[in-house]
Amino acid sequence: MAELLRTHPLEAWAAALAELPDEVRITPEPFVAMVDVRVPAAASEGLAVRGTPLPTAPNTWTPTADGRMVWLGPDEWLLTSTGTVPHLLEEELRDQLRPVGGTAVDVSAQRIGLRISGTRAREVLAKGCSIDLHPRAFPAGRSAQTTLGQAGVVLLSLGEEGFAVLVRSSFAGYLASWLLDAGLEYVPLG
Asked: Measured between alpha carbons, how far is 55 from 29 in angstroms, rounded to an integer?
């Protein structure tokens, strides 16, 4: 079987994003496997997926051995993995979750990630996000399904490392343009 080459949706924006100052760093993250996990609420308490307990506190995420587990709802999580091929991750999770009435669906092509960091990252995000991003309200380990600009995103607080933004691939170009515009005031003149 021939391997398909993937072009990152933000490839055309790479040079412009690289020109932003250190105060606002926007970096497209490489493709990762993403699987939507559904488990009945009664079965999720204490359940570990790939060795990581499902986060049951709303709007949180936890690191895994090679990715993240993001709470999306009372019976839904998004698992990312940098070390497993998407279809194999889906198959592994489906086999693990079937006995407790759970499901796993590969959604790797649905979203891509961006890392936003630097001393002005919070200010840039606040220009288009209606949630309180102050570290007391949105500390490391918190997540939110919200809008950024006009794009629906999953926003993860990484603490001192900034933020991860998961956006639908079809909105990636729009969001990159919006972020460049929002960060423009921090680009030195001259």
From this structure: 23
pTM to 2 decimal places: 0.92
What are the two backbone dihedrals, phi and then psi, of residue 90, each rounded to the nearest 5 degrees? -60, -45
CATH of domain 32-107: 3.30.70.1520
Residue type, 143: S
Structure tokens, 123: 């200010």
CATH of 10-31+109-190, one of 3.90.1150.10, 3.30.1360.120, 3.40.50.920, 3.30.559.10: 3.30.1360.120
Q: Which two tokens stand for residue 101?
A: 């009435």
* Beta strand segments in 6-109, E: 25-28, 33-38, 48-49, 52-53, 61-63, 67-73, 76-81, 103-106
- For the chain of 190 residues, list the mean pLDDT of each consecutive stretch of 10: 70 91 94 96 88 95 96 96 95 96 96 96 96 96 97 97 96 96 84
**Cα 79 to the center of its chain, rounded Å:** 10
